[in-house]
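Final report, closing paragraph on structural work. Over the funding period we assembled a curated collection of sequence-structure pairs, and we close with a single example.
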Amino acid sequence: MTVRRRHSTPAVSETIAEAVSRTNQTIHLWIEAGIFAGCLLVLAVTATSAANPHLSVVAAAMFFWMIVLSLRLSPRGTILLIPFIISSASSMVALVMIEYGAEIPELGMMGLPNGSTSTYVVYTTICFWFFLLSFNWIVGSDLRSIKQISLLFDRYATPIALGILAIGALSIAYLMLAGLKSGFPLLTGADRYAYRRFSADIITLYLLNLKATISIILGMVSFLLPVSRLLKLASTSIFICLSLVFFLFGEKFFTQLLSLATFMTPYLYHNHKRLLQLLPVLLIGGGLALVAVSTVTWFIYSNGGRENPHATMQRLSGRMVGQGELWFLQNQIGARVVNWDSELVEKNARALFVKDINLFAVREGVGPSYFSNRYAPDKIRASILRNAGSVTYAAALEALGLAAFGWAGLILVMIFTGGVIALSSAYLVYAIRLRSVVSCVFAMYIISAVRSYVSQGALWQIIGIYSLKWFAVIFVIELGLMLLNSALKPSAQMNYSRI
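Its predicted structure, as stored:
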């Protein structure tokens, strides 16, 4: 009897080969991640003991390695993380400058090498990588079963797009009229925070504060909604014009990069599988954007080109170090391995139930005021009290976590933070996937609250009683939209594949 041998088809062979290749690639990535983690810990220990400013540059290179590695581990997760990456990069640049001896006017001291850049990269890595693990688990389990129960936003895509374009155009028109009336901060040399405090009307304030929301709904028109090319081109043009107007109001460098990243989020997310292939093009485009933003920022700080380069650099340096000075300060003060500051914890717990939180924070010393009340010079403290605008503290969460819970406790804070960012990012994915402009606006509101928590250490922004009230309103509206979509009973329902 002749026995026939069963040969695998080419398709099956290719599938097996691809699976093996992916498995090997994943193993290699995790091995590289382990090597990275080991190198980073060695660097952190060395930098805190050796006190060499050049090690801060090595830490910056490690930060770049961590971002590239994160992109290879989870492209779609890293895309959602871009706004937080930009904020962390600004703090890291500030810390490098501080370790090279830059002046820190808000604290009345000079910088010195103390390993703060290296330790900052360690805790940022913990936060980002726990985010990636949480995000991949959420969108890979809970969101994979979500199906588009209605084509509501597709069926009315054109009128929705026209409405968004109208909002963008009206925003530009109103801001231009407001600037002509009160003077543009870029042209008058006014501090942008002082302008917001003393000169801007309420509508102007809302438009300036809602940059991210306006950017992403314009991005949805440009890259996501099924509308004509003319409307997509109009949306992109309005975004560019709006960015130029924001420059006139003193918005610069990292804030503008954040707006650009938010605008591009729908496109990048839907093309995450091609992201590594598109990386050279994106880097070139990002480099051009960086040059443009840097040029305008230099123009702003040179007082319209009237200051010499040395004076401009000194003024620019004084502002930039504010992005990392609190972490540097707490590193310099030191902390226990494990700590529990009951007074600081109790004040933050009380802040969750306070309505006039800004006054409470300054008076009781929570958030960045914890440091300014103790260490800022008198003139800076007075500026903060009257909200005059000469202080832009950032990276407060890490510093406050270190002060309250010590080095080991801060690990738990960063793990919690990574989980919170993952939840808010998953909501944005839900909005992008359903092409829901309403959900996208709500998601950006929540992400803005999370960003405020991360940059200012403002826990009340995400679990405060008044924040939870608005989150509940969003939940009710989303539930209403789902019921409305179900009632419409569309003839064709689209079953999307896994995110």
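The beta strands are 103-104, 109-110. The chain has two domains: 11-147+326-488, 154-317. We thank the funder for supporting this effort.
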